[in-house]
Every structure is written in structure tokens, then in C-alpha cells.
Design goal:
The protein is mostly helical. 74% of the residues lie in helices and 0% in strands. α2 packs parallel to α4, α6 packs antiparallel against α7 and α10 packs antiparallel against α11. The longest helix has 25 residues.
């Protein structure tokens, strides 16, 4: 009987020891083994431009909750660059954006994402990213060049928008019916302004005064025909203006 009691007691002690050991490990008494996530295969596949291998190798790093922050950023940047090279712009932007959330000090990545926004046609976001890159690194050459080019482009667009829908003449003093029709139609107003600008350029680039005089006479004759033809059956004002613009700019327009 005594030996049976000792056996039961020994079993209870062993069970208690196991339980205490587990609790001790769970509470940090002994460091639990941490499985390291290897980012190298992802980086190698991306550098080799291997979409198939990079797809799985990088996903195993990016989707793993145990991946260290630094390695996660590396994998996102590498996969984003790979997507960008293969014109998968939206995917590249998504990876770059996530990497920048984790580490907003990456000037190169801001510049890279700015170039991707530019590919999508989102110029304001592109300028914003180029500016962010320069804020981090004022001497970033690519970001400086990109920001300067985009600033000029936005200024040009702003200037175009300021005159959009406005003809070459003052609509307040428009007296002729055709002039009022041009003022009332944004597309016709833009055509009129372009014709005026193209004619001025042609005269400015004339080889001699006689040629410049002939060019202006041609423009005056167009205006006379336009004024006389507008409102008559079969007269297409828009087509007449488009033909005149093409004539001024050459066959290729």
C-alpha cells in the first residue's frame, strides 16, 4: 500500500514539475525558440527578375507575422521594384506605400513611388512624393530633377487652365454672331485661341517680311470667309477652324 502511495505521489510531483516548467517558459523564464524568416531568397529572386520565384519567396516573408520589420521593408521594396519593372504599377505602389508606412525615411522609395504616380498620370501625387524625398534628402539628384520638371509641368497646366475656354479676342466686345458663337462654346474658343497662337508663331518664324505679310493676309482671308460663311446652310464652323489650325501647324498638326 505504501509503495502504491509513493508511486502516485511521484507521478503527481512529475506532473506538477512539467506544468511549472511550461508556465515558466510561457512567462518568459526561458526564451522560446524563434523561427527566423529568411528574406534572402526573396531578394535574390527579385534581383534576378524572376517573377515566379519572387512571387512565392517574397510572399512567404511579407505574409509572415514573425518577419522582422527591417526584413519586411526589404522584401516589400524588392517586390515593389520588380512589379515596377514589369509595369504592374498598382501592385508596385501598394508595396512601396506599405514599406513607407513602416519606414518613412526612405528618400529613394518616395522618389520611386513618385515616378509610378507619374506613370498613372497622377501628377499632384507625383510632385508630393518627389517633395517628400527632397525633404528627407535635399541633395537627392533624381528627386530634384523630377520635382523641377513636374513643377514646371504643373505651372504650364495651370496657365492653360487659366485661359481654357477663352478665345483670342475679348468676348465682352464681341459683336458678330460668329464671335458670340465662339465665346459660347468652350471647344470653339480653344480652337480660336490655338489658331491665333499658331498664326503668330508662323509669322514670327517667317524667313522675311514679305513672307510674314503673306501669312497674315492668309489669316485675314480666313477670318473673312469664316464671318461670311457662318450661319449659311452646310457651313461647319468647327471643321473650318480645325482645317485652318492644321494648315498652320502642318499636315501632322
Amino acid at each position: 500500500m505504501r509503495s502504491q502511495n509513493l508511486i502516485r505521489l511521484s507521478g503527481a510531483v512529475a506532473l506538477c514539475a512539467l506544468s511549472l516548467g511550461a508556465a515558466h517558459a510561457a512567462t518568459g523564464g526561458e526564451p522560446a525558440a524563434v523561427v527566423q524568416v529568411d528574406v534572402a531568397p526573396c531578394l535574390a529572386a527579385a534581383a534576378a527578375d524572376d517573377m515566379d520565384k519572387a512571387g512565392s519567396a517574397c510572399a512567404s516573408v511579407i505574409d509572415n507575422e514573425k518577419t522582422a520589420k527591417a526584413d519586411l521593408v526589404k522584401a516589400l521594396v524588392a517586390r515593389g521594384a520588380l512589379y515596377a519593372r514589369h509595369d504592374q504599377v498598382d501592385r508596385a505602389i501598394a508595396d512601396d506605400s506599405r514599406a513607407l508606412q513602416l519606414d518613412p525615411t526612405l528618400a529613394d522609395l518616395f522618389n520611386a513611388r513618385g515616378e509610378l504616380w507619374l506613370k498613372k498620370g497622377d501628377k499632384p501625387k507625383a510632385v508630393q512624393d518627389f517633395g517628400a524625398a527632397l525633404k528627407i534628402d535635399p541633395n537627392h539628384e533624381k528627386a530634384k530633377a523630377n520635382h523641377k520638371a513636374m513643377a514646371r509641368e504643373l505651372e504650364r497646366i495651370g496657365a492653360q487652365m487659366a485661359v481654357a475656354g477663352k478665345p483670342s479676342f475679348n468676348c465682352r466686345s464681341a459683336a458678330r454672331t460668329v464671335e458670340k458663337a465662339i465665346c459660347a462654346n468652350r471647344e470653339l474658343a480653344d480652337l480660336d485661341r490655338e489658331i491665333f497662337a499658331s498664326n503668330a508663331r508662323a509669322i514670327r518664324e517667317a524667313r522675311n517680311p514679305a513672307e510674314a505679310k503673306a501669312l497674315q493676309r492668309e489669316q485675314d482671308e480666313f477670318i473673312v470667309r469664316r464671318n461670311a460663311g457662318f450661319g449659311r446652310p452646310g457651313y461647319d464652323l468647327k471643321k473650318a477652324m480645325q482645317d485652318r489650325l492644321q494648315r498652320l501647324n502642318g499636315v501632322d498638326g
